[in-house]
Design a protein that fits this description.
By secondary structure, the protein is an alpha/beta fold. The protein has helices spanning about 15-25, 35-45, 80-90, 175-185, 195-210, 225-235, 255-265, 275-285, 290-310, 325-330, 365-375, 380, 400-420, 475-485; strands at about 5-10, 25-30, 45-50, 75-80, 95-110, 120-135, 140-145, 155, 160-165, 215-220, 240-245, 270-275, 315-320, 355, 430-435, 440-445, 445-460, 470, 490-495. Helix 8 (about 275-285) runs antiparallel to helix 9.
Amino acid sequence: MEKILVLDFGGQYNQLIARRVRDHHVYAEILPYTVSLEDIKANEYKGIIFTGGPNSVYDMNSPHYAKEILDLGVPVLGICYGCQLVAWMGGGEVKTAPVSEYGKIEFNADKRSKLFKGIDEKSIVWMSHTDYISCVPNGFEIIGTTNDCPCAAMENTNKNIYAVQFHPEVTHSRFGSQMLYNFLYEVCGCTGDWVMDNFIENTVSLLREQIGDKKVILGLSGGVDSSVAAGLLSKAVGKQLTCVFVDQGLMRKDEGDMVEKTFTSLFDMNFVRVNCGDLFLSGLKGVTDPEEKRKIIGEEFFNVFWNEIRKQEELGFFAQGTIYPDCVESGKGDADVIKTHHNRVKTPDDVEFLGIIEPLCDLFKDEVRQVGEKLGIPKELVWRQPFPGPGLGVRIIGEITAEKIKILQEADWVLRDEMEKNGYEKNLAQFFCVLPCVKTVGVMGDHRTYDHLIAIRAVTTDDFMTADWARIPFDILAKVSNRITNEVEKVNRVVYDITSKPPGTVEWL
């Protein structure tokens, strides 16, 4: 399989670059700049992309790399900081720019370059830099400029090395996708062998070889990652797979039944459902602090899950729904650990497996969804919105009770049902109801009521790092409000959260 290396120098768009490469059917993987030159040689990459980063190349405390990487005979594309790094390693000069460039900038391209095949001579690119290349290295020619950047792009055609000061990976760069395509196909000579059908076939074959006649155990949450992992494993080893589904009573309405029906009807596996809602409610009785609630739910889930695993006659392998961003965020290779992701589960000391299996560890979320669709997993699971690990426990303010769970489940179901019916759900990244446990005065019929308030939260976002509150049309909100107050007992008022992130967060707790 063809591979492109995305060499990360601390850029915020490292994963986006890899995803854009994969959009063109070429597999890309991200490694930190601390990876050795020998490891890079051994992997036989078709091309290397240097990412951006927040540093200055002339600061010797900044990330650098051995200049021999430019002599490997492997095509290189430097982006932003990576562009300046190419110049620095090649003997050019980088200085603080007289005029910094941020945002959309008009770019002038030399269309004779392979990198700019099929794009307009003038276009818009996304800039974000305070340094600039004041003198290009020997062997390089300038192939792009802006009004304030005399070297916005350069190339060394003898070595197949290209560099751009802007970010072609973001959608703000009008022809950025075409530039990446040109680098992959015109410069690197890729053929495009990264497709999901091949991934499923190859992965199933490798899983059968790895697992043999042994058992596999997977913790199934009902989320897209664990669901698709379960589908792949079932396709590979059938009844050798046992999926343990812990229903802690904090899922959305009928969600536990939907998960069980899906996996017992679609796939050949052993499905174990543990219904333990009463146990969780007992542990949460009287608890109002949000962090304490999270801790109790997490610890109880851990205990229930592993106690069920201990009942299994044979353990074999332990499977997880780890996806590629989980690996990167958790410090893949020699990178610093940013965070430990929830999809990477710590096993108890007294539970021993033959090994860990992560069939999705090379995929991004959108690729996982593609696999799920091809495996025949229902849309409501494949396109399931982000759902917190503690479930509705973090959408109920104050103490959690069975009555409050029921109220929130019913209100949330109405919201989701209405959004699906009118088709507006496709415009939203996430939407849900919150029970603030605030009671207000209302009038229903001729009677005064004193019942619960429901808050609706809906956001639009590309990456969840920031989010904007969704401008849902008033007529849709009015219908949702009317249905909730009429169909959900003990609710007499509905409000809409119009807070963006920041200053707020997507979830309330």
